[in-house]
Amino acid sequence: MIPQGRIKVLSEKEIQDKPYVVYWMQASQRTYMNHALEYAIGVANSLDKKLLVYFGLTDGYPEADRRHYSFMLQGLADVKRSLALRGIRMVVLKGRPDEGLEALRHMTSIIVTDRGYLKVQREWRKIAAENSCCSMVEIESDVIVPVEITSEKEEFSAATIRRKLEREMSEYSVLLYESECNLKSIDDKLDLDELDITDESILDSLNLPGISIEVKGVTGGQERALKLLEEFVEEKLDTYGEGRNEPGSGNTSGLSPYMHFGQISPLQIYTRIFDSNSPGKAKFIDELVIRRELAINFVFYNKYYDSFQSLPDWARETLNKHLQDDREYLYDMSELEAGLTHDIYWNAAQNEMVLTGKMDGYMRMYWGKKILEWSKTPEEAFNIAIELNNRYSLDGRDPSSYAGVAWCFGKHDRPWGERSIFGNVRYMNDKGLRRKFDMARYIEKVDNDKRVHGNGKEEHTP
């Protein structure tokens, strides 16, 4: 049973007498614990129709590059295999996702889709609903509690959203069980210009920026995500609370890229962690639910989430007050991207992101704070941090990424003691790193990444 709060009608047009219920899969790229998929199966069975799963592969997604597409395509291949085992046909068409629905118009009785929160994702669904010839329903499957159910406004901090989430958790954290389609579509022949997502040359056929290459040794997909979850619970969860911030420790789940692409459900992670008796359980759930859904609240209610304007008034005012402060070091975008600063720890963090597609959580905070300190203006710093993170992180272009960068500039935080450049925004320095952590181990870890991954970049002409 899917809670009513997860269901939203986007188009109230009539259901058509056509052969397929179409599930437009975009954000929830998985078959396990996918509310949109299970809802679509239920509708198909009730209408005595077949189910067709459609994915639109656009090479025009803002700031996405080769490493992101490689990871996503591995996951989509997983999905296609899993759907086939359940007798469900999947089609992947090249082009903007909402436009790809037009190619299916002649066979679509009703459209079911999942939910995205970024501006481009919401715009796709809005246009698709306006242009659809039939009913269109959106099913929330990528948060524990639907964003509007949690709050009707942008929340100030984790403390303010925590109470609201806790009130709704019991209703929305119920397990979802898989069902079967009564009518199978797997062997249906369709006159469509489909993409073969298992073709190794598909990346070369896409018009991608070509700044970053695939990350070696990282595999996308729901099967890999589930394996990582089990490894984390068995080997790392017990020490997560005390060890997650230690740079180079590897004491994290590694699931954020998989969650970004919808390759694993936050509900599946939550129920697996909640059932454990681990001392690290509470802290992990706080990050998974409170912090992540605070980030989604941010991008949903703040239309400026990807710009300096998204920051609270106090943060913008205090940073602008210190615009003319002397800056001992200034670096431009090219120097920062190449990791050519005077700070070996910052350089290591930047190199880690370029090489591996991820960065230790504590170092991400330090990384963003230093970009603020070393840029001509806080607005320039904000833009550089967003661009670098989106370009190289596998979980870039994500609500948590936008909120994480904004936090470095004062979002979801409080004013601190005033100081040069930062004003009342929280400050971090390398002395704090050395005092708290074994930074030599972190440098050694990144040096090893260089040997394994190469330089993480290809030659690129703008």
From TrEMBL:
<dbReference type="GO" id="GO:0003904">
    <property type="term" value="F:deoxyribodipyrimidine photo-lyase activity"/>
</dbReference>
<dbReference type="InterPro" id="IPR014729">
    <property type="entry name" value="Rossmann-like_a/b/a_fold"/>
</dbReference>
<dbReference type="InterPro" id="IPR036134">
    <property type="entry name" value="Crypto/Photolyase_FAD-like_sf"/>
</dbReference>
<protein>
    <submittedName>
        <fullName>Deoxyribodipyrimidine photo-lyase</fullName>
        <ecNumber>4.1.99.3</ecNumber>
    </submittedName>
</protein>
<feature type="domain" description="Photolyase/cryptochrome alpha/beta">
    <location>
        <begin position="19"/>
        <end position="147"/>
    </location>
</feature>
<dbReference type="InterPro" id="IPR036155">
    <property type="entry name" value="Crypto/Photolyase_N_sf"/>
</dbReference>
<dbReference type="InterPro" id="IPR006050">
    <property type="entry name" value="DNA_photolyase_N"/>
</dbReference>
<dbReference type="InterPro" id="IPR052219">
    <property type="entry name" value="Photolyase_Class-2"/>
</dbReference>
<keyword id="KW-0456">Lyase</keyword>
<dbReference type="Pfam" id="PF00875">
    <property type="entry name" value="DNA_photolyase"/>
</dbReference>
